[in-house]
Design brief:
Elements: H1 23-33, H2 39-46, H3 53-64, E1 68-70, E2 76-78, E3 84-91, E4 97-101, E5 108-110, H4 112-115, E6 123-131, E7 137-146, E8 151-159, E9 162-167, E10 176-177, E11 191-198, E12 207-215, H5 222-230, H6 239-247, E13 261-263, E14 269-272, E15 281-290, E16 297-307, H7 318-326, E17 330-332, E18 335-337, H8 342-348, E19 356-367, E20 378-387, E21 390-393, H9 394-402, H10 407-411, H11 416-436, E22 445-450, E23 456-462, H12 466-489, E24 495-497, H13 503-515, H14 528-537, H15 544-553, E25 559-561, H16 585-598, H17 618-656, E26 663-672, E27 675-680, E28 686-690, E29 699-702, E30 707-710, E31 716-718, E32 722-731, E33 736-742, H18 747-770, E34 784-785, E35 788-789, E36 810-811, E37 814-815, E38 818-819, E39 825-826, H19 834-840, H20 850-865
Parallel strand pairs: 13-20, 14-21, 28-33
Antiparallel strand pairs: 1-2, 3-4, 3-6, 4-5, 6-7, 8-9, 8-11, 9-10, 11-12, 15-16, 16-19, 17-18, 19-20, 22-23, 24-25, 26-27, 26-32, 27-28, 29-30, 30-31, 32-33, 34-35, 36-37, 38-39
Helix pairs in contact: 5-17, 6-7, 11-12, 12-16, 13-15
């Protein structure tokens, strides 16, 4: 716990003056003046008493740290910023941090001392101070440009009359001091939201006040309340947005039909999960004849109808502002934070069955044969009104396809022919996908099943059948058409780009493959087909999961950008998001672009409020605006993913608290210098096995091979290795689960143990016979027990027993049967008189061998090193 002085400041020097202006105040005044200022004048403007020792020390420290400098007249001015590096602070749970540079170069390490000045997320200027003991670049914070953390969530604690809030975000290591008059209704141990009144400095902790009491830590749904505030996810719509939604009609009006194609007689259907509530896409497929005469060939007509959200959410209105701020819906177990109010997301813009809905349609033609089979030959976009003829689920569709005469087939008999046509089209699209060389990773997705209280009841694998893949291929086809339409029209928009691997990651992957005798084609710029060929060639190898993991980690993250560079993983030259405007803002932007092009117009987004005017032509300014939107949507997507993962980690920790001490089988899914991450095979929960639990020796971390290797024994721990672990500890606050290794039992291990034991038993027997000349040698084939000849029982003899036949069952590496303390085979002890049973196996003290002594000394030396 942090030691505090009488003035509630941590570890302050005796002559510390709290009235001295902070560095931020001094820098702000110099920046505002924009001319050199004498120290006396600076003190007068800041209201500092003349001759203040604390103020003089503050100026000297700022000059030493390169924040200010003196000119030849002794006046103070801001130091040049040419040597300073701007970026964002990223905290770490262990107290130190990193500067994520704006220029994208290597991060700078920030020590725990430097992190006292800032909070996670702050924007700062840093001066490079060289390298730390590991050779990584290190920096010193010169100036805080922007304070990003003004509110945070944490546990309210009363420590002997001192009120503090301990942040839930482990990347923030400051305790927030709360004055007695600012605690509100908060009670000890409750989860609260605190507003930062005073930001931290090197010598002072942040000061705040409680603005919201969320409840007790174990209240149902508390993990979601914490996550949305911890990651700053907007979870309440503005009053203007709700008022705007209320003014919208509850159904399609006659005036909405103007200029739209009527598709209400087309049997479009929705296919979604059983628990889905918003339906933003519907599909229809039929067989058609392409061409004429001798060139006539079979094909498919595929209609993908997407809810026309852009008709109701217009640029610049309150609904649009809230949607942009969220950029995506956030999905938690048992709860969704939607991008749009429920009246739109579950009502007016949701393609519910048996009601009219407005839609933006992508109408495609796909050849069924020939060189272009499975690729869209022609497409068109148009506004329409539609009527969903059935709400189906993946499970029902797959069951109907497998058994057309079964319950699911009879239930949807009216649309079953269209479902069967969809499945035939899917087979053609899938063949084209394989021919194209798109990468298809075989990963296991999990689903958390919760009880009424929101706690985990079970974690089950999410089974994907061909019905999922049918919809996936239909949506991919519509997305590629939307991207092609924007590109052909030379209209700017947001593409979903996925660049190829960087040279560093590619080289690391090639180095790893070389150790396995494999190679990746494509040279310095491999294509998706090269990756697919590699995975296909290793499909039947025992280390296939390891290869898939390594190739996946060599990829870059997908993002939104106006600069189309294609989608590497899907092997598309152009790709965008078009099919989910209810839950993704980039899809809504794509709809606006397409609707403008259909009408022969051009769509230009509204300028963002925080975006400064960029000099240049109108085209350059428009591109910069699209680029900013792409970065914002990508960042908000990462934020939503982080919040979802945090809630899942919290629930899994709560679930595993009931399994502390239990033993599970698992797979190593991550390797780092400090240990291995193991995912349990049955529960799909990941935890850490610290390197100290791996053995009493040093372990060398090989980054390229992703393995830890023991220096003395050569023991290796690699990705996808199978291990047995015991749940050792669960830390709910840090979302951390710790395992320790348990020695597993395998057939090969038992076989080797039996051989070693048999060899050890025969060797003492030979020595005993040679050391007793008067003893008669037993006949060949005589049975032995405990390494001594059979026969009459002496004081050290055991009843004779025959060795088990080859292949007999064993347990714990020893022959089956009754076991003594030494694990040797015994006959029925009930035949031995009770007064002789104690003499049958006298306790022997085994002398320690030289090898045993050396091992003990080595283990002792190893413990000293640790």
């Amino acid at each position: 716990m942090t030691t505090r002085s009488h003035n509630n400041q941590p570890n302050t020097p005796p002559d510390f003056d709290p009235d001295v202006p902070s560095r931020e105040q001094i820098l702000a005044l110099l920046r505002e003046a924009n001319v050199p200022i004498a120290p006396g004048e600076l003190a007068r403007r800041l209201g500092v008493a003349a001759g203040s020792v604390g103020f003089e020390r503050r100026l000297a420290a700022m000059e030493r740290d390169g924040q200010v400098m003196q000119n030849r007249k002794g006046a103070l001015l801001l130091a040049t910023k040419l040597d300073f590096i701007a970026g964002r602070v990223q905290g770490h749970r262990d107290g130190f941090g990193f500067l994520i540079r704006d220029d994208g170069q290597q991060d700078l390490f920030l020590s725990s001392k430097e992190m006292l000045k800032v909070l996670h997320g702050d924007r700062v200027l840093v001066r490079s101070t060289g390298s730390d003991y590991r050779g990584k670049p290190e920096g010193s914070i010169v100036e805080v440009l922007e304070r990003r953390t003004n509110k945070l969530v944490g546990r309210f604690l009363n420590e002997r009359g001192l009120y503090i809030v301990v942040p839930e975000d482990q990347r923030i290591k400051h305790d927030i001091l709360v004055p007695p008059g600012e605690i509100g209704e908060a009670q000890h141990g409750q989860v609260v939201t605190v507003e930062i009144l005073e930001q931290p400095t090197r010598h002072t902790q942040p000061l705040g006040r409680v603005v919201e009491v969320l409840g007790e830590i174990d209240d149902p749904g508390m993990e979601i309340e914490i996550a949305v505030r911890k990651f700053d996810v907007p979870h309440e719509f503005s009053a203007k947005a709700l008022a705007r939604a209320e003014r919208l009609p509850s159904e399609v009006t006659r005036g909405d039909l103007a200029g739209r194609y009527d598709l209400r007689d087309v049997p479009l259907i929705t296919i979604d999960g059983e628990d889905a509530r918003d339906f933003d896409d519907a599909v229809y497929c039929e067989r058609v004849e392409l061409g004429s005469g001798a060139r006539k060939r079979p094909g498919w007509r595929l209609i993908v109808a997407i809810a026309d959200v852009a008709h109701y959410v217009t640029p610049g209105d309150a609904l649009d502002a809230d949607a942009l701020e969220r950029s995506t819906s956030v999905y938690f177990p048992r709860k969704v934070i939607p991008m749009l109010p429920e009246k739109l997301s579950n009502g007016l813009c949701s393609i519910n069955p048996d009601v009219d809905r407005l839609a933006l349609v992508c109408d495609m033609v796909v050849p069924a044969s020939g060189a272009k089979a499975g690729t869209v030959q022609a497409y068109q976009f148009y506004n329409a009104v539609m009527h969903s003829h059935a709400r189906t689920t993946y499970t029902e569709v797959w069951a109907a396809l497998q058994q057309p005469d079964g319950p699911a087939g009879r239930k949807h008999a009216r649309v079953l022919p269209q479902i069967q046509d969809l499945y035939e089209l899917f087979k053609t699209l899938q063949q084209a996908r394989e021919k194209r060389g798109a990468i298809d990773f075989d990963t296991v997705e999990t689903k958390i099943v919760c009880n009424e209280l929101g706690r985990i009841q079970s974690i089950v694998p999410y089974v994907r059948n061909d019905a999922h893949k049918v919809i996936e291929e239909c949506m991919l086809a519509a997305n590629t058409c939307a991207a092609d339409f924007m590109e052909r029209s030379k209209h700017p928009g947001l593409y979903r780009i996925h660049e190829g691997p960087t040279l560093e990651k590619l080289q690391a992957l090639r180095d790893f493959l070389k150790t396995l005798g494999l190679s990746l084609g494509g040279g310095d710029k491999p294509a998706a087909a090269d990756y697919s060929a590699l995975l296909a060639s290793a499909k039947n190898r025992p280390d296939a999961p390891l290869l898939q993991t390594m190739t996946l980690r060599s990829m870059q993250q997908a993002m939104y950008s106006p600069d189309n560079v294609g989608h590497f993983g899907l092997s598309y030259p152009a790709y965008t998001h078009f099919t989910s405007p209810i839950r993704r803002y980039p899809d809504l932007l794509t709809h606006r672009v397409i609707k403008a092009l259909v009408q022969g117009k051009r769509y230009v987004p509204n300028a963002l409020e925080e975006m400064p005017m960029i000099p240049g032509t109108a085209k350059e300014q428009e591109h910069a605006l699209w680029e900013k939107l792409g970065l914002l949507c990508s960042a908000n997507e990462r934020r939503a993913d982080d919040a979802s993962r945090d809630v899942e980690a919290w629930l899994k920790c709560w679930y595993m608290r009931e399994h502390v001490g239990d033993v599970f089988s698992g797979t190593i899914t991550g390797v780092a210098s400090f240990g291995t991450f193991v995912t349990l095979d049955e529960l799909y929960v990941e935890g850490l096995v610290h390197v100290s639990e791996l053995g009493a020796e040093y372990f060398q971390f090989n980054d390229s091979l992703h393995e830890l290797r023991g220096e003395r024994t050569g023991m290796r721990y690699r990705l996808t290795d199978k291990v047995q672990v015991q749940v050792a500890r669960v830390d709910l606050e840090s979302r951390r689960i710790e395992f320790k290794l348990v020695k597993g039992v395998s057939y090969e291990g038992l076989r080797k143990a039996i051989k070693r034991e048999a060899a050890s038993e025969r060797e003492p027997a030979k020595k005993s016979v040679q050391a007793t000349p008067s003893a008669a040698l037993p006949p060949e084939g005589a049975a032995f027990a405990s390494g001594r000849p059979g026969g009459k029982k002496g004081p050290h003899a055991t009843p004779s027993a025959t060795l088990p036949p080859e292949g007999a069952p064993f347990a714990s590496g020893r022959p089956s049967g009754k076991k003594s303390a030494k694990g040797v085979l015994l006959s029925d002890m009930s035949k031995v008189p009770k007064d002789k049973q104690a003499d049958a196996h006298p306790q022997e003290k085994k002398p320690g061998s030289a090898r045993t002594g050396k091992r003990a000394a080595a283990a002792k030396h190893s413990r000293k090193r640790h």
